[in-house]
Amino acid sequence: MRLMLSIALVLSALIGPIITLPNGAPVSVCETMLPFHGGGIPPLTTASPFRITPVTSVVGSGQQLQVEIESFPANVVFKGFMIQARNRFPPNEVLGQFELTDESAIKLINCGGESNTATHTNTKTKKDLALEWIAPANFKGEVVFNATIAQDYDKFWVGLESVPVKVVETGQNPPPVVGISTTRQPPTTTTVPPYVPRVTAATDSSDPIYQGCGDTKGCFGFPEGCVETRNCRAVVATIVQGERYIFEMKSGYNRPAYIAVGLSNDAKMGDDSVVECVPEQGTVNAYASWTFAGPYGVSRQGIAQNFIRLLEKSYVDGVIHCKVERDAVTTVKGQKFDLINGKYHLLLATGSEADSTHVSYHDIGRHVSGVPLALAEVGPVQGMSKLLLRLHGALMLTAWIGTASLGILLARYFRQTWVGSQLCGKDQWFAWHRFLMVLTWCLTVAGFIIIFVEIGGWSQVDNPHAILGVVTTVLCFLQPIGAYFRPHPGTKRRPLFNWLHWLGGNLAHIIAIVAIFFAVKLQKAELPEWLDFILVAFVAFHVFMHLIFSIGGCASERRNNQRVTSMQMADMTPSRNSMSSMDRKQDAAFSGFRKVMLFFYILIIVAFVVALVVITVLAPIEDAVESIKKQIMN
């Protein structure tokens, strides 16, 4: 088609008839779409300020589609135009027909078919003109809207093309992209099936989206540092061309159902203007939406769609790619977003579910730029620090996998070990139990405060981890208070305290372990799913050691009873109380075995804690390992 236009351009330059057409294009230019302006004036080859924008990228055969002629900047006007829809593939015939919606500005001509071309009726100035096109009833394929726009007598552009529009069978209910609101079918959720991550175009080191990052455009992706290695799970590039602000996004990790970028004043979810790219019916559509802080949500309802334009798109092998232009200055939900003078945090997110009204939680990934950015300033973009998040995980793992587990074990099985040996005026088992549980209390309270500072309030994530964490913290907080006011040994209420103290400690420990399991599912934690196996191994080891110590306790009690019996037969004079007193002054039987097993238990627990903390702090661990490998190879 472009070759045909080039040949026609040469012919027009040679012939150059001196004809002006104030009443629109004639049928004689149906093929060339060249204005007959005096002196053989050639069309401009500079970038056009006009765009041909279909409001949807998919339309049913026989159905109506709105097509807009838009100008950028918005105050640029034009006087004449000619537009038609052509088959994207040879023979590039003109297809469909236009409806006459405004006789004062539009007239229709027949270019091999009835009313299949629209043109102007006068040379009055125009801008943001909308036309209605009806797809042919017997055609399935792709069409491209081709236009000639005349800004003035000697200033016009030929061959302006829209993005391709797919014509499908009627009844597939194609969704809109931008520009108009339509009646939608009831929302149907699209769930992307599980997918084994692999290298795709989104993580290809030769991907063009990474070219010019930090030099001609700003690039931001996750995990942190992926732009430098050209290995992002999701990435957005901000391109500024004068007053044009373009966001190019790409993601193929875990076959996402959407990728979105938001502009935020505070780096927190809520009251943010978002641009989404969503695969639908084999293509990619762009939407403008708005985030809500509590409860978490993103919605397109009530959000104007005319300040974004989908320039490029593709959806191949599960990889979303789109390029969306956004107006430099917009007002959304009463908030002004001035990309020329303002600075904003970038919120980049991908998720596995989306429907016709909104995208769901960003369960695949989310990243926030560390500082507000002026989009016109090109340079490296760093993400928000995750130090507090990692520190929270490390403290909680150390507390409930390490110190709490050991402290509970000592209190239960080592009361009759190291008898006569004291630390700080207390029996060894009690001194160490108190130290470990106070350390658990300190780590838990610190971790609890840190995560509240990091999140800035209550978590809106649909995961019971937060609730379980609060319950654990409350029980942990009450334990030392109850211990401080415990009744003296031998008093009537002492057994009740013993049972409540035992119950509170064990409940806190169990709930904490369950909360850690749920933490693995948190997208923000970026923990690998195989971490569950390590946690299961810890639980199995912990239960096994309790079983070993319980069996050892039973054997020890039987040996002690035998020893008491033999002593009573040797000397019947001492009372039973004196026998018990003598027994408490020495270690219970098999104390050496218990000490060896305790040493073994401590070694394994330390190994578990170290492994879990390292995986948490370096998350995502797979990327950290890959980065280390590359450094070693280099």
TrEMBL record:
It is found in: Membrane. Its main location: membrane. It holds the Pfam family Cytochrom_B561. Keywords: Electron transport, Glycoprotein, Iron, Membrane, Signal, Transmembrane, Transmembrane helix, Transport. The chain crosses the membrane at residues 394-414, 435-453, 465-485, 497-518, 530-549, 598-621. Residues 348-555 form the Cytochrome b561 domain. InterPro entries: Cyt_b561/ferric_Rdtase_TM, DOMON_domain, Ferric-chelate_Red/DefProt, Reeler_dom, Reeler_sf. GO terms for cellular component: membrane. SMART domains: B561, DoH. Residues 1-20 form the signal peptide. It is a multi-pass membrane protein. GO terms for molecular function: transmembrane ascorbate ferrireductase activity. Residues 15-186 form the Reelin domain. Coiled coil: none annotated. Its cofactor is heme b. Residues 232-351 form the DOMON domain. It comes from the Eukaryota. Belongs to the FRRS1 family. This is Domon domain of stromal cell-derived receptor 2. It comes from Aedes aegypti.
